[in-house]
Amino acid sequence: MITSGLLYVDKPAGMTSHDVVSVVRRAARSKRVGHAGTLDPFATGLLVLAVNSATRLLPYVVGEPKVYRAVIRFGFETDTDDRTGAVTREATPPAAELLAHPNAPTLRDAIASLTGRLAQVPPAFSAKHVNGERAYAMARRGEVVELPPVEVNVMRWEWLASTPDSLTVRITCGGGTYIRALARDLGRALGSAAHCESLRREASGAAHVDDAEPFERVEPGSIVDGRIALRSPLSALGAVAHEPLDAAGLAALRVGRRIPASVPGARGALLWHDAVVAIAERLADDWWQPRVVMLGDQDAT
Which of 77, 96, 134, 299 is placed for a possible disulfide with 89 were both Cys, Cβ 3.0 to 4.6 Å? Predict the structure, then answer.
């Protein structure tokens, strides 16, 4: 039974990503659980987790592009830029006719101004560091938090539905993008005020929420006893070469020696019986130099 790999979980609202990690630790009966990107407590959807030795692969997991489904509510801003915060500013919502037509010039121009590489000011209630402290901790104490803009990449907005005071969109973006901040800034671009009413992550790289385990199925021991199967990390590692090892190659890996390369590529996943046991970088003379080695779990015995 594979006890090292990836797990996709459909996170419910009201839980932190760390809460989900704690539940998965009990399911795997292991403390070695990590995640490839957090979700806000009010958000739902895909959370990619790694269990046991697969946690060492998290820096190599391709988590972009990210795809979110969001409902943007117009009429007021909040201090968190989402529905959980206190109202900080009110404004008349855009005309219902504007929101009903995705190609309305004003709406089209506003969305265009928030597409591409942007300098985005993160929400005050965020995990950004300010003088060594998390911004949200300062904001909770009522302190004024002024965060500098950071560059983000918003690749696409897709109009899905609307009401007289809301817009439902699907946003494809790079890592580090705050959808809450996009909602806030869209309201301002339309001469109104807005916040993110709901947020759901649908995809992260090759991982999709349709393939995720419902959270309620992640019960104590459910990974250990096989009720929930872990996934191979291969699909989440992006364009890496796949180098199967023979017994001699595995022995060389165990003692830290380089491995002969038989397939092209700058980075390779070294495999033993289809399980990833190492990530290696190619040397100039057609050898693999292991950078991350995952031996000791049952997947390399």
Answer: 77
What the chain holds in terms of domains, given with CATH numbers, is 5-62+206-234 (3.30.2350.10), 66-201 (3.30.2350.10), 239-300 (2.30.130.10)
Indicate the residue type of 69: R
Q: CA 271 to CA 264: how far, in whole Å? A: 15
What is the reported pLDDT for 130?
A: 64
Nearest to 3 by CA among 64, 58, 67, 50: 50
Q: Does residue 19 carry a catalytic annotation? A: no
Q: From the candidates 10, 19, 40, 285, which is the catalytic residue? A: 40
pLDDT, position 3 = 77
Q: Which residues pair with 34 in a beta bridge?
A: 50
Which stretches of the chain drop beneath a pLDDT of 70? 1-2, 125-139, 141-145, 296-301
What was the pLDDT predicted at 158?
97
DSSP letter string, the chain = ---SEEEEEEEPTT--HHHHHHHHHHHHT-S-EEESS---TT-EEEEEEEEGGGGGGGGG----SEEEEEEEEESEEETTSBTTS-EEEE-PPPPHHHHT-TT-HHHHHHHHHTSEEEEE---SSSS-EETTEEHHHHHHTT----PPPEEEEEEEEEEEEEETTEEEEEEEE-TT--HHHHHHHHHHHTTS-EEEEEEEEEEETTEEGGGSEEGGG--TTTTTTTSSPPBPGGGGS-S-EEEE--HHHHHHHHTT--EE--S--SEEEEEETTEEEEEEEE-TTSEEEEEEE--SSGGG-
Structure confidence by residue, pLDDT tens digits, 117-166: 999 988 876 666 666 666 666 667 666 667 788 999 999 999 999 999 99
